[in-house]
Amino acid sequence: MPLTPDQIAEIESQRANPRPTLRAVSDGMEAHLYRAHQVLDHGFIRVIDYMGDDAAIVQAARVSYGAGTKHVQNDEGLIRYLMRHWHSTPFEMCEVKLHVKLPVFVARQWIRHRTANVNEYSARYSILDREFYIPAPEQLAAQSTVNNQGRGEVLSGAEAARVLETLKRDAAQCYDDYEAMLSQDGQQGLARELARMNLPMNIYTQWYWKTDLHNLFHFLRLRADAHAQYEIRVYAEAISACVKDWVPLAYAAFEDYRMGGVTLSAKAIAVLKRRLAGEAVEQADSGMSKGEWREFCEVWG
């Protein structure tokens, strides 16, 4: 169950008592406040608070760049100009705070995005719940033969069943041992900060994660990408849906220039020019490595 009955009651209580405010408000984001969006089997993301909107980005840019932006006729055009030319500070004027429940191995990937404020549930003080991420059968895949970081062919039949059984058995056994080691039922037991080291990486943790829009876009560009690991990508996709409602103009520019665009190396530009001139160019005479050439061909054919 992603949310406990107490958490659901708290959320409904908070949503039932709106307060007037003089600060900038995004109607799209207000609809997401406190609501939990389920991710994976036991996880979720929910917006706890936010600051700013599309107008805050424009406001900051016009203070920062002054006369240099007067030729831009509207807010959308200015935001697209900022995104297109990699201006970052105006997007830092918007912030969001999320409550996220996620498997520990996903959290360890996520925390590599260091430009954020994080406070995680502490297993030194509290006992973790018996909740584990168990992949759906269609997510059980062998190692990719092309990408060292990716997945290849989906497992099936007896092999898939064997892996699922192993995951479930090991998670249950580790948690049973964790409970047995804790101080309870009159036993002296082991301290929680030590007993937790026996828990598996697929157990769920929770944290509050606060970041600005510039760094959030960087997170989404990497983690909502089709090449990202599925288990973190679905979190990024859930966050993307909230961001799209929060700052629609900025998100549209982000989709266009970051998610939908590509960055070309000098060698790639040279190859495109040669192709446009009618020359047949192959990897051997492109100046690119095999990996670069494969990625180039995925986009340009």
UniProtKB/TrEMBL annotation:
<dbReference type="GO" id="GO:0032259">
    <property type="term" value="P:methylation"/>
</dbReference>
<dbReference type="Pfam" id="PF02511">
    <property type="entry name" value="Thy1"/>
</dbReference>
<dbReference type="GO" id="GO:0070402">
    <property type="term" value="F:NADPH binding"/>
</dbReference>
<dbReference type="GO" id="GO:0050660">
    <property type="term" value="F:flavin adenine dinucleotide binding"/>
</dbReference>
<keyword id="KW-0545">Nucleotide biosynthesis</keyword>
<feature type="binding site" description="in other chain">
    <location>
        <begin position="120"/>
        <end position="124"/>
    </location>
    <ligand>
        <name>dUMP</name>
    </ligand>
</feature>
<feature type="binding site">
    <location>
        <begin position="112"/>
        <end position="114"/>
    </location>
    <ligand>
        <name>FAD</name>
    </ligand>
</feature>
<keyword id="KW-0521">NADP</keyword>
<feature type="active site" description="Involved in ionization of N3 of dUMP, leading to its activation">
    <location>
        <position position="223"/>
    </location>
</feature>
<dbReference type="InterPro" id="IPR003669">
    <property type="entry name" value="Thymidylate_synthase_ThyX"/>
</dbReference>
<comment type="pathway">
    <text>Pyrimidine metabolism; dTTP biosynthesis.</text>
</comment>
<comment type="subunit">
    <text>Homotetramer.</text>
</comment>
<feature type="binding site">
    <location>
        <position position="223"/>
    </location>
    <ligand>
        <name>dUMP</name>
    </ligand>
</feature>
<dbReference type="InterPro" id="IPR036098">
    <property type="entry name" value="Thymidylate_synthase_ThyX_sf"/>
</dbReference>
<protein>
    <recommendedName>
        <fullName>Flavin-dependent thymidylate synthase</fullName>
        <ecNumber>2.1.1.148</ecNumber>
    </recommendedName>
</protein>
<feature type="binding site">
    <location>
        <begin position="212"/>
        <end position="214"/>
    </location>
    <ligand>
        <name>FAD</name>
    </ligand>
</feature>
<feature type="binding site">
    <location>
        <position position="120"/>
    </location>
    <ligand>
        <name>FAD</name>
    </ligand>
</feature>
<keyword id="KW-0489">Methyltransferase</keyword>
<dbReference type="GO" id="GO:0006231">
    <property type="term" value="P:dTMP biosynthetic process"/>
</dbReference>
<feature type="binding site">
    <location>
        <position position="218"/>
    </location>
    <ligand>
        <name>FAD</name>
    </ligand>
</feature>
<keyword id="KW-0274">FAD</keyword>
<dbReference type="GO" id="GO:0004799">
    <property type="term" value="F:thymidylate synthase activity"/>
</dbReference>
<comment type="similarity">
    <text>Belongs to the thymidylate synthase ThyX family.</text>
</comment>
<feature type="binding site">
    <location>
        <position position="89"/>
    </location>
    <ligand>
        <name>FAD</name>
    </ligand>
</feature>
<keyword id="KW-0285">Flavoprotein</keyword>
<feature type="binding site">
    <location>
        <begin position="109"/>
        <end position="112"/>
    </location>
    <ligand>
        <name>dUMP</name>
    </ligand>
</feature>
<keyword id="KW-0808">Transferase</keyword>
<dbReference type="GO" id="GO:0050797">
    <property type="term" value="F:thymidylate synthase (FAD) activity"/>
</dbReference>
<comment type="function">
    <text>Catalyzes the reductive methylation of 2'-deoxyuridine-5'-monophosphate (dUMP) to 2'-deoxythymidine-5'-monophosphate (dTMP) while utilizing 5,10-methylenetetrahydrofolate (mTHF) as the methyl donor, and NADPH and FADH(2) as the reductant.</text>
</comment>
<feature type="binding site" description="in other chain">
    <location>
        <position position="196"/>
    </location>
    <ligand>
        <name>dUMP</name>
    </ligand>
</feature>
<dbReference type="GO" id="GO:0006235">
    <property type="term" value="P:dTTP biosynthetic process"/>
</dbReference>
